[in-house]
Amino acid sequence: MVTLDFHPTGRHFLQIPGPSPVPDRILRAMSLPTIDHRGPEFGVLGLRVLKGMQKIFQTRHPVVIYPASGTGAWEAALANTMSPGDHVLMYETGHFAALWQKMATRLGVKTEFLGLPGVEGWRKGVQAQLIEERLKADTAHAIKAVCVVHNETSTGATSNILAVRRAIDAAKHPALLMVDSISGLASAEYKHDEWGVDVTVSGSQKGLMLPPGISFNALSPKAIEASKTAKLPKSFWAWDEILEMNKTGYWPYTPNTNLLYGLAEAIDMLLEPAFGGLDGVFARHRRWGEGVRSAVRAWGLEIQCSEAASQSPVLTGVIMPEGVDADAVRKLIYERFDLSLGTGLGKVKGRMFRIGHLGDCNDLTLMAALSGCEMGLKLSGVKLAGSGVAAAMEYFAGHPAPVALRKAA
Predict the structure, then answer these.
(1) What gap in Å lies between CA 114 and CA 135, rounded to an integer?
(2) Tens of pLDDT along 139-164?
(3) Annotation-wise, does 106 bind a ligand?
């Protein structure tokens, strides 16, 4: 038997940018008995989560829910809209953009990777003007889709998706716009319909506060139309059968019933009017991000995302001074203070670590995490300019939460 509950006292501090901590309320919902996925009760549950996810994506169009990770939803987005040899323009903002590009190539799609050169390209969000220039040059409209990452989990850069939509429109180009918002959804502002997105990909284990195992494709009518002539092989991922059965709240295969219980609970929590609904969620994350970044600046360390307007409300990447192994710092913090931080990935492996500030946390959760970071940095011999903990305390104390706690009865 694997020992999973290995923390001697208190709770483990899971401050990676996903999977994020799962609230007790959602864990309790998931513990309910499994029901017949062809029975009448399940149809009610199915319709409830499908309609709820339309509100989370801010769309009036269908949302497909898969029993899979976000990687599965990446594949579904491509497999349902592309044919072998189709040309796709993808923008490199970090490790996950690179993984999506690698997947597209393996599926038989011709990929073109656009972006700023070297590590510098991993310190900014999408530069929409580069997309506009490339599409204007594509006078034959060979490019069938533009794929970008909304919130790049490997770097902490959030891109302006509306600017990408406007770039495509300015080029008068018919390409589909496909967006990975796996770590952005339900944490950073996202508007599928208003921003003109054709397929949005997301997953359960970030802002939705669930374990891994559910992923999503939010669709536009244009994307559904494209799927009718797309020739890439697909069966499990195919939208047509799923959309047809979803009309009555069911799936063409066995769905992950107990995770859907948790999803229904998460939707209720995120849309709760007493806490400001989605606008309250977005404001809460923006505030947490500012508080954490105030600590990093006080330490005198660089933030991975160097573009202030693109700094993420979901996570912050912290660059180590030259000669300091970020993974050794993370290891020390984990072993001494029971705190998990995100590792650097790809081009920035060993150069930085990531602090997640999303989902089920609050000011004191983040203060504890920053305390663990500060102690670990000092024990690792990193010379700090000042106290990030003091700076974050000052920020949180001086900037009250936009939605106050409800008073006790």
Answers:
(1) 11
(2) 999 999 999 999 999 999 999 999 99
(3) no
